[in-house]
Amino acid sequence: MKRILALTLALLTLLTLFVACNDPENTPDGGETPKKVSANVWVLNGTTGFGIAPLIEDAKAGTTALDYKFTVETNAANVQAALLNGTADIAALPTNAASALYNKSKAQSTENAGFVLLALNTRGVLYLVANTAKVAAPTSLADLAGKTVYCPAQNPAFVTKALLDKAQATNVTLDSATYAEPAALRDAVASGLVDYAVLPEPMVTIAISKAKQANAGVTLAAALDLTAEWKTAFGTDSLVQGCIVARKAFVDAHPEEVKKFLEEYEASINYVIANPKEASEKIAASGVFAQAPVAEKAIPKCNLCFITGAEMKSAMSAFLSALPVASIGGALPADDFYYTAK
């Protein structure tokens, strides 16, 4: 009886040791495997979101360094609101909207006040499109003298106005009210309702394709690349239209995780640039843009980039300086707007 009892006790002891050795709370480092930091990331559909699509797909597979919660939005104002109320930790925005957000937050004293620019993700995506079935394709901005040019509101209008002023193109009517949304202007261009228009990619690709399919006497040409025009006019490669920003409180609380995010984001953008076909499928699957074939054609013309540090600050400062001060929030951002890894 005593032998049976002793054997039973020995077996119980071995079982206890086995369970303890397999308990996650008894790992060699003395604790559980640390949880991934959660990051709420908001992106705009379209070009500024193209570069992050592979990262969205990686997050779904659970292979990312952070626990990302992605939201794809159609309205930049909603993204700004999410950053201001703390719903978003990191977000993609037009560059002038990021500057305006920074200046607006400076007037607040809430816990969500303060934003930093992490990286630039898109250079210029604008093209001057002409209906060459009716008008001659311009070879320079000066050729638009006396013409009406339609343009979406906000960022595209600010860029186009700065270029027209620099080129001293006289008597040009820049209409950014009739077709304020890019999609509305795209359809008007494809239908032949306007002769000259400034459109962003991928709207240019869509408009040209629609006009060809309709076969209604509309022949569209992307006559001028406004990114090239900017470089010629201002002497720098400073046309930067898209960026990624973060709440300063999030950056301060998670400095190592922000570095990891930037590493993953850079890899994601580089993948899109190098693999348009495969990336276009990820772009469609992530909800950033629905039409994979259009995205594939547009990617090479979207000027995606990943720019940080001193180059980011130089390009952003030069770009914002060329825009109306009201469009950037009333003033150029101070040095604390620009992220520097510690």
Explain how this protein is built.
Strand 6, helix 6 and strand 7 form a beta-alpha-beta unit. With 342 residues, the chain is an alpha/beta fold. The termini are far apart. The strands form three sheets. Strands 2-1-3-10-4-11 form a six-stranded mixed β-sheet, with helices on both faces. The chain has a three-stranded antiparallel β-sheet with strand order 8-5-9, sandwiched between helices. 45% of the residues lie in helices and 18% in strands. The N terminus is likely disordered. The chain has 14 helices and eleven strands.
Q: Would you spell out the secondary-structure blueprint of this structure?
A:
Elements (H helix, E strand, L loop, with lengths): L1 H20 L16 E7 L2 H4 L2 H9 L5 E7 L2 H9 L5 E5 H12 L8 E8 L3 E6 L16 E3 L4 H13 L5 E3 L6 H9 L5 E5 L2 H12 L5 E6 H9 L7 E6 H6 L1 H20 L1 H11 L5 H7 L5 E4 L1 H13 L21
Parallel strand pairs: 1-2, 1-3, 6-7
Antiparallel strand pairs: 3-10, 4-10, 4-11, 5-8, 5-9
Question: What would the keywords be for this entry?
Answer:
three-stranded antiparallel β-sheet; alpha/beta; single chain; six-stranded mixed β-sheet
What is the rounded Rg? Answer: 26 Å
Distance between the termini: 68 Å
Spans where pLDDT lies below 50 across 5 or more residues? 1-28
* Average residue pLDDT: 90
User: Order of helices and strands, N to C?
Assistant: HEHHEHEHEEEHEHEHEHEHHHHEH
Q: Please, how many helices?
A: 14
The fraction of residues assigned to DSSP E strands is: 15-25%
Approximate helicity band: 40-55%
**Biggest sheet: strands, sense, closure?**
6 strands, mixed
The total of beta strands comes to 11
